[in-house]
C-alpha cells in the first residue's frame, strides 16, 4: 500500500468537505474492495475519507411502501433487519448471501453500489426493484445510476447517502455463487411491482455489468411462474466468460436463476 | 535438447506426487471398462484384486501384504451400496442426478530403501535417523530427522516410547527441526515419518533398553535375560525385585556401580534404512448429486476404508485422511492453476483459485481394515497421502455415473459438468 491520509468524517457535510481538500480523494465505507486494491497498489488515493461511522449514514427506515437503507448500513444489518425481512424478504435474503460473514459485517450497501462490481449482488436488487439512489446532491433512479463495469452516475465528490426501495408485491433472488470469491457467478432478482409491472435484473452475467433481462420480464408478465421461462432463451452474446463460467453457461444461469428466483418469490 | 525460460510458476511434488495421477487413470479405466462391459464397477474390481502376497509387480515394487476385498466390502457396507438404485430413483423424482463412484487405490510410500531409490536415479538415500537421550532423572528426549509440520509426530512418536516403557507420555519429548541439535536426517514426506522415522526410534530404543537392562541386572544382581520392562520399571521376572527407570538412568550417569567396561550415560543413536516401501491400500466410494440446471455437484456421502496397518494414533490418522480427501476433492472439483494466452496466471489469488473450504466438502465416513505391514517392527504403513491419491477418481466416477457422460475433465466445475450434460 502506498502512503495515504486517513480522515474519519463526522457528518455528511464534513465528508464532502474533506473529500474536496484532497488531490485524489476516495470515500471509504466498508473497505471490502477499496482496501484490497490499495494493498495491491492498484489504487493510491491521496486521502481516504471514512464515512462508515457517520450516524446519519447508518440505519433502516420503513415507511408506507418504501424501505430506505442508509448508505453505510452493513450487509449483516440488512440481512438481520426484521423490517426488511418483512417488507422485502428477497432483499434481506440477498444481503445474507453476500461474500462471507467477515465481508457482511464490514461491507455496506452504499459502498457496494458506488463500486458497481459487475458481479456484486446489490445492483440486481436496486435495478429490479426500481430503487432510487440518494446522494448528497440528488436522487438518481436505478435506470440512470449503473453505467457499466465499475462505473456509475456518481460525479467526483458525490456520495451515496441512502437507497430507497419501493416495496414490491413479490420479489425473489437466486444466485449461483462464484466458487472461489462467493460473488455472483450469476444472480437474478425478479420483482413484481404493486402496480403489476415485472422487472428482472441479472448480475454477474453481462460484460456491461448489471442488466435488465427483457425476455424473462416478458414471459413473467404473461405468466408469473418458473415454468413460464422453460421456453425462454437468453442470448450468450455480450455475456462474461472466464475460467468459472463460459458465456453460454452464464446465459443458462440467467434463465435457471430466474426460474429459481420466481419460485422463491412465490 | 531445448531449454526455455518460462514465467510460469515453478512446480514441485504435492501430496501423493504421481500416485494420484496413476490411481486416477487406473480407476477411471476400471470404471469405463465396467460400464462398457455392463458389469458392476465394484464387482469388476473384486475380480481383479491381487490376493496372494508377496506380489512382485512388473516394476520395482513388491507388494508385501494387503486385503483389498476387506476394504471394498467395508466401504460398500458403509455406504449401503446395494441400496443405491433406490436412492438414485428417489433423487430423480426431485430433479437431481445422483451418481456413485468407486475408487480402489494402492500406493507405495514410507520411502524408501536407499538401494532401491538409488537404482531409480535418486541422489540421496532415504533412511532416517533417531537419537534417544534418557536424562539422569528418567525423562526421555527423542531427536528425530522426521520434522513435524502439522503431522502430530510430537504425539505419535512419544506414544511409541511411552508404550514400550510404560511411562507417562509427559515424560517423553520430541526434538525436531533444529539443526543445531538434531543430526542429519531425511525428513518428512512420502508418508514415511512413522514407517521409517518411527522405526529408527524403535531401533534406537532397542539399544537403550538393552543397555538399561544390563544396568538394572547389575544393580539387582540378576541375570540380564530375566529383566522385563513394565510400567516404567525394570523387573526381575518371577520376583518382586525391581528398579524404576529414573534410578537406572541415574545409575548410568553417576557411574558408581556399572558393569565392568560399560561406558557411562544412556543415549543411543540409530539409522534405519527400510527394506521395502509400505503399501497402504483402500476403497473409497462417493455418492453425490448433480443439479442439471447448474451443473453443481453436492455430496451425499463419502466413505473411505483404508488399510494403514497398525494405527498408533487413530485420531491423527483420521486427520491425515480428512486432509488428503479434501485435497483429492479439490483436485477433482475445484482447483487448477490456469494461465491465459499471454502467460498471465489468472488464478493468482483466492478470489479466483478455488481452495476447498469446509462447505465444499462432505462429512467423511472413515473406517479401517488392517493387515500389519511385515516390513517394519511397528507394522505400520503411511497414511498421509492416501486420501489425495484415492479421492479424485471416486468423485469423477460418481459424477460421470450421475450424468451418463463419461467424458469429463478435472476440475469438474459446474460449467464443465453442465456442458457435459447438455452438450
Write a compact overview of the structure shown.
The complex is a heterodimer of chains A (266) and B (423). Chain A is of the alpha+beta class.
How does this structure look, described?
The complex is a heterodimer of chains A (266) and B (423). In chain A, 33% of the residues lie in helices and 23% in strands. By secondary structure, chain A is an alpha+beta fold. In chain A, the strands form three sheets. In chain A, strands 4-5-8-6-7 form a five-stranded antiparallel sheet. Chain A has a four-stranded antiparallel sheet with strand order 9-10-11-12, with helices on both faces. In chain A, strands 1-3-2 form a three-stranded parallel sheet, covered by helices on one side. The longest helix of chain A is centred in the C-terminal third of the chain and has 19 residues, at 247-265. The model of chain A has no long low-confidence stretch (mean pLDDT 97). In chain B, helix 7 (193-220) crosses helix 8. Chain B has a four-stranded mixed sheet, with helices on both faces. By secondary structure, chain B is of the alpha+beta class. Chain B has helices spanning 19-37, 41-48, 68-79, 84-93, 114-119, 153-165, 193-220, 245-254, 314-334, 386-403, 414-422, and strands at 55-56, 62-63, 97-106, 128-134, 140-144, 172-175, 227-230, 233-236, 242-244, 267-272, 281-290, 297-307, 365-368. Chain B is elongated. The A-B interface holds A 176, 179-181, 185, 242-246, 249, 252-253, 256, 259-260 and B 293-296, 334, 336, 338, 346-347, 350-355, 360, 413-415, 418-419, 422.
